[in-house]
């Protein structure tokens, strides 16, 4: 019996063929359960920057779509940051005392 041992590689050292660049690559992440795989996409942002996006949606099959979704999500994050800065609103967790007062009020 021959046992093949594959060493983990740093993400930047992975080799990509054209199909994987277009459609993503299924990988195993060190430390994840043995049967858990993710799909990794390599997104070229500029000539000196490459981002990597991992998803558990193995049916995702387009790097272009992944890039567009990430762009939309980033715009939403920027909107949330700006709205907080402009209005001063922040989500604050209620204190235990506030919850107890509310419960007492509701139980009247």
What's this model, at a glance?
This protein has 108 residues and is α+β, with helices and mostly antiparallel strands. The chain has helices at residues 18-23, 63-87, 96-106, and strands at residues 25-28, 37-46, 49-55.
In words, what does this structure look like?
It is a single chain. The protein is an alpha+beta fold and 108 residues long. It has one domain. It is 39% helix and 19% strand. It is built from three helices and three strands, in the order H-E-E-E-H-H. A three-stranded antiparallel β-sheet has the order 1-2-3. Strand 2 (37-46) and strand 3 form a beta hairpin. The chain is extended, with a radius of gyration of 22 Å. The mean pLDDT is 82.
- The sequence of SSEs as H and E is HEEEHH
Q: Helical element count? A: 3
Number of domains: 1
How far is it from the N-terminal to the C-terminal residue, by CA?
74 Å
Number of strands: 3
Poorly predicted spans: none
Dominant shape: extended
Strands ordered across the widest β-sheet: 1-2-3
Query: Structural class of the helix and strand makeup?
Result: alpha+beta
**Rounded Rg:** 22 Å
What is the mean pLDDT? 82
Note the main sheet: 3 strands, antiparallel
Q: Quote the beta fraction.
A: 15-25%
Q: Can you give the helix content as a percent range? A: 25-40%
Show the helix and strand layout.
Blueprint: H1 18-23, E1 25-28, E2 37-46, E3 49-55, H2 63-87, H3 96-106
Antiparallel strand pairs: 1-2, 2-3
Protein name: Transposase IS4-like domain-containing protein
Organism: Nostoc punctiforme (strain ATCC 29133 / PCC 73102)
């Amino acid at each position: 019996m021959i046992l093949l041992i594959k060493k983990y590689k740093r993400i930047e050292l992975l080799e990509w063929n054209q199909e994987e660049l277009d459609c993503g690559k299924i990988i195993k992440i060190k430390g994840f359960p043995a049967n858990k795989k993710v799909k990794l996409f390599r997104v070229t942002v500029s000539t000196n920057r490459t981002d990597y996006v991992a998803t558990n949606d193995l049916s995702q099959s387009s790097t272009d779509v992944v890039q567009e979704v990430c762009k939309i999500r980033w715009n939403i994050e920027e909107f949330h940051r700006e709205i907080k800065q402009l209005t001063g609103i922040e989500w604050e967790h209620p204190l235990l005392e506030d919850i107890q007062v509310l419960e007492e009020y509701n139980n009247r």
